[in-house]
């Protein structure tokens, strides 16, 4: 009986150490990516970026997402596979970019970059900054869908829409069965 308890304690400690390492590793990669993006945006003021040809390379950090209510500045990386999401918020390939008048979809892990997005409310702002400008969006609504529901990703042309997606429930352990979706539109100020 004592051996079983000891094994369970060691196993539990090992799982906690692994989870801690994963979290620290993700934060490190987020910081490195964010520093690279900030440096690139500072240098890009002299670049001539055209919307029609804008196409960041897969896996590259290219923008920043600021969530003022949460006091967060997060790197945005092209792509949404596990390697991309380890660096920050992932831009879902095939969706649009700011000022292109279509749907922009950003995805992130609920336990890292989007840890507190459940605290956001209608009317809160989101800011995307990239080479060709800074764009402010106002949250309009939230919704919870099944993890298999891909209908949230679609063209909204000519209306621009920023969509944030993360797993739900927020405190779920393992692969969550649902997705939490936040919809925002450009600020008209």
TrEMBL record:
<dbReference type="InterPro" id="IPR041999">
    <property type="entry name" value="Sortase_D_1"/>
</dbReference>
<keyword id="KW-0378">Hydrolase</keyword>
<dbReference type="InterPro" id="IPR053525">
    <property type="entry name" value="Sortase_D"/>
</dbReference>
<dbReference type="InterPro" id="IPR023365">
    <property type="entry name" value="Sortase_dom-sf"/>
</dbReference>
<dbReference type="InterPro" id="IPR005754">
    <property type="entry name" value="Sortase"/>
</dbReference>
<dbReference type="Pfam" id="PF04203">
    <property type="entry name" value="Sortase"/>
</dbReference>
<protein>
    <submittedName>
        <fullName>Class D sortase</fullName>
    </submittedName>
</protein>
């Amino acid at each position: 009986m004592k051996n079983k308890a000891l094994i369970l304690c060691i196993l539990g400690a090992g799982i906690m150490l692994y989870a801690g390492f994963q979290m620290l590793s993700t934060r490190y990669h987020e910081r490195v990516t964010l520093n690279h993006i900030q440096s690139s945006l500072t240098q890009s003021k002299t670049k001539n970026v055209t919307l029609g040809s804008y196409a960041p390379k897969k896996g590259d950090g290219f923008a920043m997402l600021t969530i003022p209510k949460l006091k967060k500045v997060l790197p945005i990386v092209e792509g949404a596979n596990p390697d991309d999401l380890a660096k920050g918020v992932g831009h879902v390939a095939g969706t649009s970019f700011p000022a292109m008048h279509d749907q922009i979809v950003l995805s992130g892990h609920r336990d890292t970059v989007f840890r507190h997005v459940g605290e956001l409310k209608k009317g809160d702002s989101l800011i995307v900054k990239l080479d060709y400008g800074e764009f402010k969006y106002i949250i309009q609504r939230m919704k919870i869908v099944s993890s298999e529901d891909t209908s949230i990703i679609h063209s909204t042309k000519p209306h621009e829409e920023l969509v944030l997606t993360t797993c739900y429930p927020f405190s779920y352990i393992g692969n969550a069965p649902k997705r939490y979706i936040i919809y925002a539109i450009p600020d008209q100020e």
